Amino acid sequence: MNLLFICTINRMRSCTAETLYAANPAFKVKSAGIAPTAPNQITPELLLWADKVFVMENLHRAFITEKFPSIDLNKKLIVLGIPDFYYYMEPELIDLLKAKVDPHLIP
Known about the structure:
The chain is an alpha/beta fold. It is built from four helices and four strands.
């Protein structure tokens, strides 16, 4: 299963999720950001590659659906509701990610 995690600048939340889930061989994992300064910016190719697209906040969903209106994400876009006040690999962020992402990974 191909998992894509998206946040704003692709440095804390989505990178933590990528690191966390890439350890599982059942998944291929990538992360991206919506900001112009993100090291890995969201692209149509990434969205099409992903089986599931996890965004941290509603603003990320709004950005993606506005910027890429021709890509149907209805069945694979999931808003996690994780605010932007965590650091990379912070234990509380890891716990939140597991609690919010894992239920979506059950076949």
